[in-house]
Amino acid sequence: MARPRLMPDNFTLMLVATVILASVLPCRGLAAQIANVVTNIAIGLLFFLHGAKLSRQALVAGITHWRLHLLVFAFTFISFPLLGWALQPLLAPLVTPELYLGVLFMCALPATVQSSIAFVSMARGNVSAAVCSASLSSLLGIFLTPLLVRLLLDAHGGSDGQSTLDAIVKICVQLLLPFVAGQLLRPVIGHWVDRHKGKLKFVDQGSILLVVYTAFSAAVIEGLWRETPILSLVGLVFICATLLTLVLLATRYSARLLGMSKEDEITVVFCGSKKSLATGVPMAKVLFAGSTMGPVLLPIMLFHQIQLMVCAVLAQRYAKREAVAPVTPVVAPLPK
């Protein structure tokens, strides 16, 4: 039986189940401390495997498309944060201040890697450029996201006084160092990692679920659901859908205005409009206090599902376009 197109994927269903579990049985006391240590180890392993999976050949093949990468980075780290900040007077009243803080955090995140590449491949776009762009976006995000979050928090009036430099150092230790170690060891373990990608995805998903569980446990204990009205959740759906729609349109028409090929347009659309849950969850753990993490993570969790459903439909439409057939010159027959 075919899976309904708009039905959430299995990982999203597990995220929902994790939030429900944290709401009913939140992690407390010693158990919370142990879970926090295990979560830190899992996050380090997650980024170690990301580094081991990244092919240098794919990066080299796609790095020459500098106009494409600049456009993607401009949308990811400039246009998206500016949209969240500029639309704040219109959109912030729809949700609680904590939820809109999460919206601003989401806007500052880098692009996804796996799903961006998967959708570009499905849509018959420039896959090598997508690998390069999405991977570099994740690396740049380690440095740019804390800076953007600081700027947006100051504008939002929600700064907690934490040093941006301290946050970058913590993120580098927890995310960048394991990633670099994985990349350096790729010649040794790369083949094994490539052969077991299907099994290793459980490390990715498990680490995210652990962070979500501990974050929502702390938030529930502090009264998250008592202080979050249902109308705010509805408003959050509208905000995420609005931001995604605006960026999808902007990426599409910007690529066309610059005269890019259809394959490059596809890469810009899918890499420039995505936000990474896998990177956002561990970054939130560093940048925000425990009880604040729950409402901060809600926007990116919701945006993650909306972008998957919308981009799946969009990728199928791109894939159905007619391939451009090579022009065969017509040679007139020679006179007899």
Tell me about this structure.
The protein is an all-alpha fold and 336 residues long. The chain has one domain: Na+/H+ antiporter like fold, CATH 1.20.1530. Helices cover 77% and strands 0% of the residues. It has 15 helices and no strands. α4 packs antiparallel against α6, α7 packs antiparallel against α13 and α14 packs antiparallel against α15. The chain is globular, with a radius of gyration of 21 Å.
CATH topology: Na+/H+ antiporter like fold
**Assigned CATH architecture:** Up-down Bundle
Distance between the termini: 63 Å
- Which sheet architecture does the biggest sheet show? none
Poorly predicted spans: 325-332
Structural class: mainly alpha
| CATH top level class name | Mainly Alpha
Number of spatially distinct domains: 1
Percent of residues in helices comes to over 70%
Evaluate the radius of gyration. Answer: 21 Å
Q: What fraction of residues sit in β-strands?
A: under 5%
Shape: globular
Q: Helices and strands, in N-to-C order? A: HHHHHHHHHHHHHHH
Could you give the count of β-strands?
0
Average pLDDT taken over every residue: 83
Number of helices: 15
